[in-house]
Every structure is written in C-alpha cells, then in structure tokens.
Write a structure and sequence with these properties.
Helix 2 packs across helix 3 and helix 4 runs antiparallel to helix 5. The radius of gyration is 15 Å and the shape is elongated. The chain has 5 helices and no strands.
C-alpha cells in the first residue's frame, strides 16, 4: 500500500504537462478499451495496462519514484508487436481502427522516453524524479 501511495504522490508532483501526458496514456490504454471489450485487442490493451500499472507501483516500492519506472512499460513492446500483427484485420477508416493506430503511436513515443529513462538510471541517475 505504501508503494501505491508513493507512486500516486510522485505522479501528482510531476509538472502539469507530464500529468496531461499521463492522462492521455491512461485514457488511450485503459478508458477507451472499456468501450471495445468485445474486441480482443481492447481486452489485451486493458490487461497489459493493468499489469504495467502494478509493475510501476512495485518498482516504486523497490527503487522509489525514479527513472527505473520506465521498466513498467516493458510489456508495451510485445503489445505493439501484437497490435502490429493485427493491423491488416482492423480497418483504418473506423473509430476502433483509428484508436488502435493512435494508441500504437502514443505507446511507441512513451517507450522512447522510457528507454532513455532506464538507460539514465542504469548509468547512475538514480535520484527521485520529484521531491516526495
């Protein structure tokens, strides 16, 4: 429970633009899929989001609110591959298809940031991202 509280405190102390980015990621990875639970892709996205969120809370408990949190999205690599393999079955001209493609773009951008953060952590930048 302490890890969850520390994680939420860390998120709330981040700059507004980062919190808006996180709201966008949560919306795309969890809220929107709830409208498409009849589709396998949406169920997989929502499930991966929940596991990733739990992993980030666990990582906060282990290493604090540090750049290591980027590892929490490591499941997005296989998620992006899974979605990529399904694109030929998902029309690009309907709302679901647009969501899948936008989600893939958002998650890929987030993964670039995450990889940079984890590399920085491994390189020695292990301080807390925000003052808790």
């Amino acid at each position: 429970m302490r890890s969850l509280i520390k994680f939420n405190r860390g998120v709330m102390r981040m700059p507004v633009w980062v919190r808006l980015w996180l709201v966008l990621l949560v919306s795309a990875n969890f809220v929107v899929p709830l409208f498409y639970l009849d589709r396998l892709e949406a169920r997989v996205v929502a499930g991966v989001f929940l596991v990733s969120a739990a992993l980030q809370v666990l990582l906060t408990g282990i290493a604090g609110f540090t750049r290591l949190l980027g590892l929490g999205h490591m499941l997005w690599f296989p998620l992006l591959y899974f979605l990529w393999t399904r694109l030929d079955q998902i029309p690009a001209d309907d709302v679901f298809g647009v969501w899948v493609r936008v989600l893939m773009l958002l998650n890929a951008l987030s993964l670039i940031i995450d990889v940079i953060d984890v590399v920085r952590y491994v390189g020695g930048d292990r301080k807390e991202i925000v003052t808790l």
